[in-house]
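Progress narrative, Year 2. Work on ubiquitinyl hydrolase 1 from Zophobas morio advanced from sequence curation to structure prediction during this period.
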Amino acid sequence: MGAKDSKRSCLPYEDAVKRMSDEEYKRICEAFKRLSGGNQLLSKQSFILHVLGDGVPQAIAEWLYIACGGTPRGIALKDLICGLVLLTKGKQDEKIRFLFTLYCNDSGTHITRSEFYNALQVEGTIPPDKPNRPNILWERTMLSLFSISQDRVTYEHFSAWIQYNKDATILSKWLLSNPCVSLSSEVEAPTFYQTLAGVTHLEEQDICELEKCFWTLQSSSPSCHLDLNCVRSMVCPPIPLTACEGLFLALDVNRDGHVDFKELCCGISAACRGPTAERMKFCFKIFDMDRDCYLNPDELRHMIQTLLLIANENNRRFSDRSDGDDHSKILDSLTNRLDDRGGLSQEEFLVWGVEENGLVEPMLELLFQVCHVSFVLRPHCRHHEHDIVTGWLQREERRGYHIGQFWYLISSDWWQNWLNYATAPRNNLDHCQCRTNDPRLVEEGIVCDESLISTGTDSNDFNSNSMESMGDLLSKGDNCSIASSSGVSSSSGTTGSKRSQGMPGPIDNTNLVAEPLHKVRTLTGEGGRLKRDTPLVQHRDFELVPDSLWKALAHWYGGPLPLPRQVILPPGSGEVELELYPLNLSIWMHASQAVGTAATWSSVVGGYGAAALNTAGITTAPITSPRRYLAHTAAFSRLANIRQVIEFLCSRLSLRIEDVRLWHIKDATSLLEDENATLQDLGVVDGDKILLEVRNKDLTWPEELGALVAGGQVLSAERRPTISLPPGATGLHNLGNTCFMNAALQAVSNTRPLTLYFQRDGQLCELNSINPLGTKGMVARRYAELCRELWAGSTRSVAPLKLRYCVTKHAPHLGGGGQHDSQELLAWLLDALHEDLNRVARKQYTELKDSGGRPDEVVADEAWLQHLARDHSIITDLFYGQLKSKVTCQTCGHESVRFDPFNLLSLPLPMESYTLCEVLVVRLNGETPIKYGLRLNSEAKYIELKEQLSRLCNIKTDRLLLAELAYSQMRQILSDEARVNPGTATELHAYELPDNSPKGAESEDFSNDMDVEIAVSDSPLARSPEVRGGSALCMPNILCFKNKQKPDRQLINGVILKKASISTHSSTDSSSSNKFPTYLVAVHRKSVRQETYFLSQQKSKPSLFGSPLLLGCHPSSTCQGLYEAVWSQVTRLLSPLPQSDQTNHAMDCDDSLGYEFPFTLKAVLQGGQICAICHWTQFCRGCTLPCSDELLVERCKNNLTGMCIAIDWDPTALHLRYQSGREKLWIEDETVGKCRKLHTEPIDLDYCLKAFTSEERLETKYHCSNCQDKQPATKKLQIWRLPPILVSTK
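Result:
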């Protein structure tokens, strides 16, 4: 196809732009900018994924990409616009020209028969060739375009032919006959946000912004819910701590322990956007803890205390009405309204609040501020915005500074522009009467309406992680600052709407910050170094706002440059201060060292050995000190201690604390060892260099390597002075992946008898330098030197360079720079010491005799003496024992016994032979899943797992489906014969399969019109919260399907049935059943609105969530039965409806309550994105399955193979009723704890010894001396003679 090598321009760019609306053009440009990352070209992958979307075959997508102007580097914006307009709004002749470019040759002059045939095969118009079967479709298509003798056609011929054969190819049918793609869609159903906005006092954009806040807060909450602790952390202060629980309960209407999204929107609407009466009712609910619309004496007392506290603390600007006398009069008026029980009804409270609002008014205003600032809700009116911001700021200024608190700097220039905008007199564009009335008790939802001129709101996303700054998270309650960072997003996005002509832009603090000294990444969020050339003065150069207020302003206007500064308490000072100038430090690190491939000394002994060769008396090529480079900058308070700085750097750079050290680089480099010392105490000043030293992979320290290279000493005297330590307290340096050697050396060194032997120079008189099996005494001498250094107690650590050299020379397999087995080196070391210290000068060969029925004592002594005749040393005296090995012939019973010496026992660890499995069993009846624990042999297969699981859950093995889940779908169905994967064995899911086996005579009793009757009191549906709460989601026709019943029916699990729940017909055709799937996988989907898209089909995309379900399937399954099967499994995931009438909460927005089911089922392919019935040219996300008695196989047109079911949730029900946390709830069987305990409990030495000495069957046949043939046999080991010191390893 010619399009693969070049492009053809079928539509000029100027003409394409004229056919687009301004909104379409701006949207496509914005989408191109975001997806291309600001580049000039959009990649091919982005074009296929985001422009065309899912479902388009890869080959056709690449054709379209190149035909639209794509190149190997990408596609330009102009070419993309031309291609999109041609596909969606092109004329017929333009689309025909476009098709011609797809099918024509490279030169673009004609279409050849062979290329056209290949193209039709690739796009699917013509099926693949089959031997000995003529393709009639191909012949007809070719004869209509090409004559018998014609092999090519021109554009004119093709154009005339395609106009009369628009359905000839898939692409021609897509573009000419049935175009289904468009740039924009005129018909759109009301969204959930529009529905909720219609029944509250919030705008649609307000609800969208609140949703971002809600989900980020919920995801950051430890309980994954907006619970009391989460709400308290957001609103307290300024809400008093004693009133936080009441505020939470006022929001939590259904009293389920958390605030859902609908409750949050409706609560905020009632608290700050509703009329005065509604706002006062919400205030009343804060104190009505038992929700009986009546304040008892205790609740009344609590209300008075809270109102007085808020009035005195938050409302001093109304001082003319808030003095003590006025409060007394107001309280007297309240007392006169109490009833005989000393309580107050809601009606009396409303009347009192209107007539004497001196105490209620401050509470209403505080709620008004909290809703807008804490939940970053943008005020509709600029005048109210001014009152909110200034009121919040004045209250916090009166509170004063608190240790650890963050305040943010805002340029006075921007602040003044904002004041001018917010305080300007009302004009004709405001549609607002705020400044003409009393600013108190203004009903914003009534008098403020700027929606006529508002086109959107700011584009900054609210980040829940910014609810606390980095300093708050790291040093709560501490009197010193950590990193001067901020959790506020530094997005440079600006507000999308202009509420008036003088509206300020993003907060600009650039005039307060000096130019950065270094062009490297900054780890902290201090925003930059403040200017020092001229002193910055508050109210002249900058203003200070508290943390929560900054987040609100940055969200409303955009804050690309936050400047947080922390409140500290300097030592010796009684007053706190705001640290405007934290210490800006440059963080240096070591450059990674290149590793050579040559077998040099450096590669043999590692960094230390290569750096300290003079101490070993060996020459090698010189190496350089590790190079330092400037990696980052960071700002810290002068009162931050070393421990806090290290923790912060490790968290930002994903390093382990134990692998990090800090050095202060000044006149001399010094290690910062005292973790409790502050930067101020250590003399660190602004602009200093801090070296962040990270331990190498071979566990060496780069600075110590540099010290070795520079001076030949491992550690400087300043850092590691010679001291007096207890004997044996000296450690060993890692010489580059030598921890395996150090572990073995320390183990042998702490063998006290052997250490005394070398300390007393016992090896000098027993050194065997002529033993050909030894090292001529080199290992013994080097180990003796190392042993004396380790037990001298004169230094903290030594480098075993000389012994390492001996190991490399005499055991090359243990050399190199790699890691080795410590057990292997230990065995070699003991053997080398033994041969160097062997008291037998020349070994004589002796043959070990067979036991021949002699007593074990005689045979053992004989073997031991023969061993000592050849091998006798201090190692033999201390470490050697004797093993008895008995081999028993399984044919004749003959026993052969041998006694062999040993110096090391390699004991097995039984836990290695077992795999811990945890399986979550999901049943078809929708009950809460149960997790079971199992321990299987490491070689076990999944069929063995299913057999054990079947005994635990009482489900037959053939009715269990094991699967691994990932990304809300089944990643893999596990085969019975596959070996259990230990990596995923603790995350398995077992689904109960339907029982499709014939029921014998009982099955024949069913007729097509027979239904099932559910006993409501016992069924899972009856146990659901909807049925108990009287929810309209549970329709009567779902609860009871009644018809004529036969007298021999049975009640099973509360359900009277004789057939599968989703089957209405009995299957009698066995051949069809074998070809029919026995189950279908169902995935949860929700529609997600895309901020950027090209085609209207991509405006909303389905997104998978939750855990997939498994539904039984049968040739006689109906769509109605499928709905019922899904409903029975998802009922437990829905929250109950509130039982009481909530006037302040818009219950009527839950339009899903009128549906028979709160979801729609659709037929999709695996992956849940593409329709399983429609062709890809329809861009269908899944055909809807009707809730009717229509057979599933007929509806899906026999396309059940590879098909899944998509559960498309109604947006309202998903937001308001679906509880994602319930998906993660399961019942943990006692087997889980038992298996975990068995798998992790420590194994004692006795257990390992018993496993070591247990009898085992030999895999290969043994030559029996009695049978004179190879026979099956068993072998048993036994420790006959124990050494003084037993060495056992894994």
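The two ends are 65 Å apart (CA to CA). The longest strand covers residues 1100-1112.
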